[in-house]
């Protein structure tokens, strides 16, 4: 599936962009994962937002986080592919674009993420390495992972 990809800093998001982002994040992280948590964490305003659109529907999204906001390294978070579009390769495309854009925007040599444990192998296939013991965030098993640019 071919998506129309856009990436904008928070200050450049339209009200429609922001609504679609928050709607998709709530759909996946709150409803689908049955997890009550504070999604609006004051980090969005400091970040870039990568969005993959099909027509007017947001299908894929990630938040590109500068160094010092979540971790001592730049990060990628809130990684989402809409449920009915998973297993289509969009997750891999989203992450590859996210990694490339982090390098462009932040000039990073490494990235640190907090990954849901069940996605460890997926992130390892993108050259991330496990960097912590398992921890619970909002009742879900996570691990920290690091990716060093070659």
Brief summary of the model shown:
The protein has one domain: Aminopeptidase (3-Layer(aba) Sandwich), CATH 3.40.630.
What separation lies between the terminal Cα atoms? 29 Å
Number of domains: 1
Write out the strand line-up for the largest beta sheet, numbering strands in chain order. Answer: 1-2-3-4
One letter per element, helices H and strands E, the order comes to: EHEEEHEHEEE
Highest CATH level, the class:
Alpha Beta
Note the overall shape.
Answer: globular
| Mean pLDDT over the full residue set | 95
Our Rg estimate from Cα atoms comes to 14 Å
Helical content stands at 25-40%
Strand content: 25-35%
**Largest sheet, if any?**
4 strands, antiparallel
* Helical/strand content category: alpha+beta
Structure characterization notes:
- This protein has one domain: Aminopeptidase.
- The mean pLDDT is 95.
- It has 3 helices and 8 strands.
- The protein is of the alpha+beta class.
- The strands form 2 sheets. It has a 4-stranded antiparallel β-sheet with strand order 1-2-3-4. Strands 5, 6, 7 and 8 form a 4-stranded antiparallel β-sheet that branches.
- The radius of gyration is 14 Å and the shape is globular.
- The longest helix has 18 residues.
- A hairpin with a 2-residue loop joins strand 2 and strand 3.
């Amino acid at each position: 599936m071919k998506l129309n990809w856009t990436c904008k800093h928070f200050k450049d998001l339209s009200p429609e962009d922001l609504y679609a982002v928050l709607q998709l994040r709530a759909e996946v992280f709150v409803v689908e994962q049955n997890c009550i948590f504070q999604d609006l964490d004051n980090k969005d305003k400091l970040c870039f937002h990568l969005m993959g659109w099909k027509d007017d529907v947001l299908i894929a999204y990630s938040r590109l986080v500068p160094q010092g906001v979540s971790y001592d390294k730049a990060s990628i978070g809130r990684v989402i592919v809409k449920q009915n579009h998973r297993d289509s390769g969009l997750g891999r495309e989203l992450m590859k674009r996210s990694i490339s854009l982090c390098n462009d925007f932040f000039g990073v040599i490494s990235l640190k993420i907090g990954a849901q444990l069940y996605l460890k192998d997926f992130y390892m296939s993108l050259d991330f390495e496990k960097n912590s013991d398992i921890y619970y965030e909002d009742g879900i098993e996570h691990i920290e992972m690091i990716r060093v640019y070659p």
